[in-house]
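2.7 Reproducibility. Because tokenized structures are sensitive to small changes in the input, we list the exact sequence used for Sodium/hydrogen exchanger, including any N-terminal residues retained from the expression construct. No trimming or masking was applied before prediction.
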Amino acid sequence: SVSSIVPESCLLIVVGLLVGGLIKGVGEKPPILKSDIFFLFLLPPIILDAGYFLPLRQFTENLGTILIFAVVGTLWNAFFLGGLMYAVCQLGGSGLNHIGLLANLLFGSIISAVDPVAVLAVFEEIHINELLHILVFGESLLNDAVTVVLYHLFEEFASFEQVTVLDIILGFLSFFVVSLGGVLVGVIYGVIAAFTSRFTSHIRVIEPLFVFLYSYMAYLSAELFHLSGIMALIASGVVMRPYVEANISHKSHTTIKYFLKMWSSVSETLIFIFLGVSTVAGHHYWNWTFVISTLLFCLIARVLGVLVLTWFINKFRIVKLTPKDQFIIAYGGLRGAIAFSLGYLLDYKHFGMRDMFLTAIITVIFFTVFVQGMTIRPLVDLLAVKKKQETKRSINEEIHTQFLDHLLTGIEDICGHYGHHHWKDKLNRFNKKYVKKCLIAGERSKEPQLIAFYHKMEMKQAIELVESGGIGKIPSAVSTVSIQNINPKTLPVERILPALSKDKEEEIRKILRTNLQKTRQRLRSYNRHTLVADPYEEAWNQMLLRRQKARQLEQKMNNYLTVPAHRLDSPTMSRARIGSDPLAYEPKPDSENLPIITIDPASPQSPESVDLMNEEPKGCSGLPPSPEEDEEGLVMRVKEPSSPGTDDVFTPGTGDSPSNQRMLRCLSDPGPRPEPEEGEPFIPKGQ
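Resulting structure tokens (single pass, no recycling of outputs):
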């Protein structure tokens, strides 16, 4: 019941405090967590477990965000904290005046890094969603390179009499050497492990040993040259896993999985217990000003760093980080045993204030692990942050994932845009064509990804069926794994593919070659300045516009016959009256100087039947209309039928002049539509 409220890491620290107090109570000296034991024996199993089972897809998709948090965020925390602590030491009185800028920057680099052990211990218990988990945990893994560089840099600078600009430039370049060098060492050992596992089909018992051996060798080789051992372990685990799992038996895979989980769990337990024991056993120097300032500035630096970096990152992310996500990222920046071990490594000769640094580091670790670790679970529930959904992957999901990957790669290819889908596809093709053939034995090297995933799921379901007692339902066939373990492999039988005739095959190749091969040559990246103008495009646009206008006019005319009228003497109403019953308005004898509207009786509603030939708007000339003109009204003439073969829409007529088009637009405005009075006819027959 206690572990549901208090995280396991907090309980283990309490156990360590009690054990240390008991040892001290009986007059013995409690053991202290030495840095060599921590870095050589306790830390590697935890990092190997995290790197070997790293969710690679989520990690690579969010790699840019993780790197910004890990590199820029850690640098910001270190320099912000170191600079403010130097100001506190200068203003803090006689006890702190002797601490210089380099010592404070070194202290800032130790305390600024997020600890992967503490993050794993807390985040796996609250089951946070995959995005937040991989962002915080990925940051805690990758910031090791920054921490190692800054730690060794400021430790070296402390022994110098004068630090030059060249030293600072070399220190900046050493970051790339440490991080990329660690990754390179890990990749080399990962490839060697994968290649070795290709030849272990006769000695299945020692297969798991190669995974642990080569991973540990990668870590030791990186530490030997002051490179990032954590980066080397992660790189070796990520590189070797897909090839090793294709070569080894299922029993070896199960052994690796459970042994790594057990080994990392034991290391984690020992680390937190030793933290509690070392707190009791160590020498402490308490300074209220220094300790409280450290704690306060750690929280401020973390919050400011996350807010500013997230504001910048969200400009480039498709899935934005919400304020809730930012709060969890900032609140989940836990410190742990790496900071304590780095502080314990400090030399008394150069850093006489080591005891005060260790006291402040332990205070920050206890605050983050106890206060933040205990309150993050209720805060996640309170903010309704999305939890991790435990769902089994299915063939359907795998097919759609691969389909979307191919689709996005094709879209990038057509656009000429080299995005991460393009490079991922290139890497997969290179892996399939060359690397798999070298590192995977037998026909598994040619097996498609979907088939391999299907075999893995089939095996998993069979094991679950056996464990649940459903062995009777399985047909009495010998397991392929048991055959693989007992007998050496026989030569694989070639899979039967549906045969295609040579003509059919050549036809398919021709279609693909003409349509797909020269895609990038035909359609380069879109640029409006390099597009070739189409000579027919303008004419077609004009024709389409005229046809669209004609349709709009037709719709309006149809609407006028079904909506209330504005005024009986308005031009629009006159056109509607004429269209409804042209025989009610006979031409008058003295109407030669009046505007003429030609009507096509066959289609009185169509806009082409109205032809404004010589109509002048009464009011555009500036003279008021005479009463005689008002009395005479409108004169109509029957429109002559058009010659055969002409198009009313595309053949320019007399009504296509700019003035007539303006008049047409003027007359097509129905104006406001008041409700008709009761009993008033909609279209009267005569006046």
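The chain is about 65% helix and 0% strand.
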